[in-house]
Amino acid sequence: MAYWLFKSEPDVFGWDDLVARGERGEEWDGVRNYQARNNMRAMKRGDLGLFYHSNIGKAAVGIVEVAAESHPDSTAADPKWECVDIRAVRPLPRPVTLDEAKAEPRLKDMVLVNNSRLSVQPVSEAEWAVILEMAGL
DNA sequence: GCCAACGTTGGC
DNA sequence: GCCAACGTTGGC
User: Fold this and answer.
1) From the Cβ of A115, is strand B under 7 Å away?
2) Which among A76, A59, A69, A44 is positioned nearest to A10, based on CA atoms?
3) What are the pLDDT digits (tens) for A55-110?
4) Predicted model pTM
5) Where is the EVE domain (predicted)?
């Protein structure tokens, strides 16, 4: 089982929008970055991820699950762009903000802290555990 | 709204 | 294949 982080601007598509999709989840389309795409290609059905609100809130707010493995992005003309489907699992009891993550020594190597621009990121098992602890789980 | 960081593009 | 120019992202 691997762990990931999905970033989204809540203005455009936020946690509440994903929850509203229910069991069917949402195609995580629109990614046009090779690193992010490669991360999605590596995902397995059932992998878990954090749903992070960029710009507004700047916090991980929920846990998502990979509902469908990598497939061509239906919004891309070029089939080289792929994406997964994700669905909401549960909200975090307490959102974990970027500031808190930066202040936590155990998260100093987290991609979110060091390369905030990557929109789909891997999260290590240790980092995952720390985030959940901070979130009150 | 600014700007730093990063990725991509295209000229050479 | 290098690198300057450009566009985009996202924190501040």
Assistant:
1) yes
2) A59
3) 999 999 999 999 999 999 988 888 889 999 999 999 999 999 999 999 999 999 99
4) 0.94
5) 2-134
